[in-house]
Known about the structure:
Oligomer: single chain
InterPro entries: APOBEC/CMP_deaminase_Zn-bd, APOBEC3H, APOBEC_Cyt_Deaminase, CMP_dCMP_dom, Cytidine_deaminase-like
Largest sheet: 5 strands, mixed
CATH topology: Cytidine Deaminase, domain 2
Order of helices and strands: HEEHEHEHEHHH
Subcellular location: Cytoplasm
Main location: cytoplasm
Cofactor: Zn(2+)
Number of helices: 7
Domain CMP/dCMP-type deaminase: 4-126
Amino acid sequence: xxxxTAKTFSLQFNNKRRVNxxxxxxxxxxxxxxxxxxxxxxxRGHLKNKKEDHAEIRFINKIKSMGLDETQCYQVTCYLxxxxxxxxxxxxxxFIKAHRHLNLRIFASRLYYHWRPNYQxxxxxxxxxxxxxxxxxLPEFTDCWENFVDHKEPPSFNxxxxxxELDKNSQAIKRRLxxxxxxxxxxxxxxxxSLQLGxxxxxxSIRNSR
Length: 210
């Protein structure tokens, strides 16, 4: 597996609210680890957007091409620089529903267009389809750094300080995601309350009519 450079990790997984000068584009990058339940060596790789295909779609196609044994269960962990867009969220849900032997977990460094309702719905669709979506914290950033980055050349920054900075920045993003999830719970509770109230009876309808 070709490893990421320390610079690529630092720039692309950067989870600050705004990029400092010199400005650069924060691109979509997906690192995946597929671990067989039988304890075999994990398979790792990383993908980025290519032409019309988002990294998530390339990931789906990559897993399909592996010819995995469907009688065996696999744990799949993905570290994303950006959370999935609504279209990719639907594709991931359909993929997991069709491949019950895969247990997928998604960790994102940043939330993509999190203020837009359709992007929030995409995140909720994943969470409601047994595909947990969480924000990367210190354990995930550390695992990504240790397993997907080339350490042959010393980085231009202190890795421990960088990981601590990423973890500190992630706290606000985690709260943002929890607020999105709580809105879904509130909507569900409101719907249940409406069901408990039941339809208006004919007598009450007549009594309340003008």
